[in-house]
Specification:
By secondary structure, the chain is an alpha/beta fold. It contains 13 helices and 19 strands. Helix 7 packs parallel to helix 8 and helix 12 runs parallel beside helix 13. Bound molecules: S-adenosyl-L-homocysteine and FE3-S4 cluster. The site of FE3-S4 cluster (F3S) has 9 residues, from helix 6.
Length: 448
């Protein structure tokens, strides 16, 4: 049996795509390799959001090309955003690569591999657009093996944030139908999945071209309501919304839809209105803060995480300090902090006022320290509480012997002494300790 190994870079959408490709290949008779060493096919699912992510994947492929010299039957492929962005260029750089598959063509990988097995050496490059491809990502590897699952509800993004390469690599917005998503969620529930995370590059735009607003509810809110009604599903999350589309109908879902978790990842990017404008992010810092206030008015305990870019062209020290102030003021539970990376072809790449790397590094380190402090305070306040977790299993790297981990509804990881029968269970734990972002707890029953 031929075995495939998929290495994934970047976002949850990529994780989901890799999983769907693995499921498809299994159906077509492949095994899943545990490591690169025992694979016959190695696919790198790539990310283009920052240059660093691309360099990592290129370095990896260079290494794999050497492996191929010792193992000539090995097939190597690129999928994901870098495959889409560079296409044939990747082959020119790395002639040992056999397959380059764009973001709308992942479902064609099995066919391409079959073709490669037949024709021997001619590499395949397939990066064309394909209508309907958003609905092809639906199979899961061994559904039910994990109590949580990602569900892709839309592909692409029609915003034009000045720094972002995603609209170029993922294409225009295309949404699956509510029925199609529901069918997948029901199948997951039937196989034992308890928590779903709905994925899209901009989920607040879900269905806006195809599904009418009903009773003042956007298509995305209608989707949330429908998923909330699926028996067996206990928890719902989604990522990522955009502040522009985060309206009162969506805010009103919190506390109303009982399965919607008390957690929101809402990218703000900057705490300066001047920078937001230059980024072409069509909202103000005040509007962002109002959304968070309204959410907390409904659900005081809601955890708020965000994305921030430091060092966008023209960002002054004052702009940066406004971002620092925002992180403190909003009391973010976590920040995905990015150093601005210049992406060829984006409007920001040609802007004046590019910040020297040393300046970007300094701002990054400063904000990182502030954010760690804020997040640690947010964690510390949870000590002593009893919280529900969904037990996912053992951590990748053994932190403490005999510890399993689960996630709270507010998306914090909790380590606790547990055993196999806890896996996949919803369990109450008493939080006994907090360290940085992580919580430690004991099953609440033991403390009765
Ligand atoms: N809305 C998408 C965003 C994808 S990019 C989603 O959530 O799926 C994820 C994050 O990467 C962005 O929110 C932004 O903070 C960061 N990012 C995007 N382009 C970047 C760039 N050129 N340099 C640094 N960070 C970037
Ligand atoms: Fe990128 Fe902005 Fe869309 S960050 S994915 S262009 S909302």
């Amino acid at each position: 049996m031929k075995k495939v190994f998929i290495k994934t870079y970047g976002c949850q959408m990529n994780e989901r795509d890799s999983e769907a490709v693995a499921a498809m290949l299994r159906e077509r008779g492949y095994g899943l390799a545990q490591s690169e060493g025992d694979a016959d096919v190695i696919l790198l699912n790539t990310c283009s959001v920052r240059d660093q992510a691309e360099q990592k994947a290129l370095g990896k492929m260079g290494f794999l090309a050497q492996l191929k010299r010792e193992k000539p039957g090995l097939k190597l492929g690129f999928m994901g955003c870098m495959a889409q962005r560079l296409g044939q260029e990747l082959l020119d750089k790395l002639p040992d690569v056999d397959l380059i598959v764009g973001t709308q063509k992942a479902h064609r990988i099995a066919d391409h591999l079959e073709h490669l097995a037949g024709n021997g050496h001619e590499p395949v490059v397939d990066v064309a657009a394909e209508p309907g491809s958003e609905a092809t990502i639906r199979d899961h590897v061994a559904p039910g093996a994990q109590p949580t699952a990602f569900v892709s509800v839309m592909q692409g993004c029609d915003m034009r944030c000045a720094f972002c390469i995603v609209p170029a690599t993922r294409g225009p917005e295309r949404s699956r139908s509510i029925e199609d998503v529901l069918a997948e969620v029901r199948a997951l529930a039937a196989s034992g999945v308890k928590e779903v995370t709905l994925l899209g590059q901009i989920v607040t735009s879900y269905g806006r071209d195809d599904i009418a607003i009903r009773d003042g509810k956007s298509p995305f809110v209608q989707l949330l309501e429908a998923v909330n009604a699926v028996p067996g599903i206990e928890r719902i999350r989604f990522t990522s919304p955009h502040p522009q589309g985060f309206r009162d109908d969506l805010i009103g879902c919190y506390g109303r839809l009982e399965k919607l978790c008390e957690q929101v990842h809402l990218p703000v990017q900057s705490g300066s209105n001047r920078v937001l404008k230059a980024m072409k992010r069509p909202y103000s810092v005040e509007k962002y803060k109002r959304i968070v206030e309204k959410l907390r008015a409904r659900v005081p305990e809601i955890a708020v995480t965000t994305d921030i870019i430091v060092g966008f062209p023209g960002e002054t020290e004052e702009d940066f300090q406004q971002t620092v102030a925002l992180v403190r003021e909003v009391a973010c539970d976590g920040v995905f902090l990015f150093k601005y990376s210049n992406r060829t072809g984006t409007p920001a790449a040609a802007m004046d006022g590019q910040i020297p790397q040393a300046g970007i590094e300094r701002r990054h380190a400063e904000l990182l320290a502030v954010m760690d402090g804020v997040a640690a305070e947010r964690s510390a306040r949870l000590v002593g509480r009893t919280m529900q977790i969904l037990v996912e299993g053992e951590p990748d790297t053994k932190v403490v012997e005999g510890r399993l981990f689960g996630r709270t509804r507010c998306n914090r990881i909790v380590f606790f002494p547990g055993n196999d029968r806890h896996r996949g269970q919803l369990l109450d734990v008493r939080v006994t300790r907090a360290k940085d972002y992580t919580l430690y707890g004991d099953p609440a029953i033991l403390n009765l």
